[in-house]
Write a structure and sequence with these properties.
Elements: E1 2-6, H1 11-22, E2 26-31, E3 42-45, H2 53-62, E4 66-69, H3 76-81, H4 83-104, E5 107-113, H5 134-150, E6 154-159, E7 162-163, H6 173-183, E8 187-190, E9 194-195, E10 198-199, H7 200-213, E11 217-220, E12 227-228, H8 229-240, E13 247-250, H9 270-276, H10 284-295
Parallel strand pairs: 1-2, 1-4, 2-3, 4-5, 5-6, 6-11, 7-10, 8-13
Antiparallel strand pairs: 9-12
Helix pairs in contact: 1-7, 2-4, 4-5, 6-8, 8-10
Amino acid sequence: MTTVVVGANGLVGSRIVARLLEAGEGVLASGRGPRRFDADAAYVEVDLSVEPEKLARLIESAKPDGVINAAAMTDVDGCEKSPREAWALNVRAVEVAALACARTGARLTAVSTDYVFDGVKGSYTEDDPPNPRGVYARTKRSGEEAALILAADVAVCRVAVVYSGRPGAKKTFAATALESLRAGKPVKAFTDQVVSPTLADNAAEMVIGVHRSGAQGLFHCAGATEISRLDFCRALAGKLRADESLIVPVRVADLKLPAPRPLRCGLRVDKVRRLLGESVPLPIDAALDRFLAESRT
């Protein structure tokens, strides 16, 4: 088996590369800028915002069994400020990958987001209709459509609030909270945003599982616990035996952020559980244990 992993420098992409290599599979990784992951995989620099067609050429020359696209512009406020770049990375690059996969017969698995929902209903299943708000959400939903329409053999895996404790990993809300709580510094956390926080390594495990299964369509590959960011921080503080009074409750509206944030955006993971096993999507307790173990390595 040979898999092209796009977005290999990212939180989820880097773990997909590592897991595939651990399983003895061939990997051709691509990402923006120099390689930033430790795994020993063949790597090609591809700036999808400038030259997406380079990805098509890469796929067509490699003739892989599959392509996993974990590349995206994930800075929600940055997307609002730079919509053309957001479109290039979140839509155009997926279109290019999907068409190349259709031409070569490769399977495509594309990574998407909980933000395709508006956050009104909460506890979303794969059958709930998306209603994206803001440039990030709208481009990610358009990318889903590009994958589902243009690729012949395709799955879309939605993740949510991804975090990692691995050395060198991108700073996330969870990593910043961990650093602050350990240092005895205050942490601001939303009381009114309920999400499905997803450990990057667990997301990679689920994405690979869906990819290997050959199953088609949409899958929620998120953490198994729907929780507010405030309660997430409290659970983390409990694991650390840190002072809970350091956690400062705030509302999303209080920060006046440039891009809209869905408030009740938890994802149901029943479908991926049925496909991969009951214990695969990690509940918050097990995920935080693995997060803290990663942060100590």
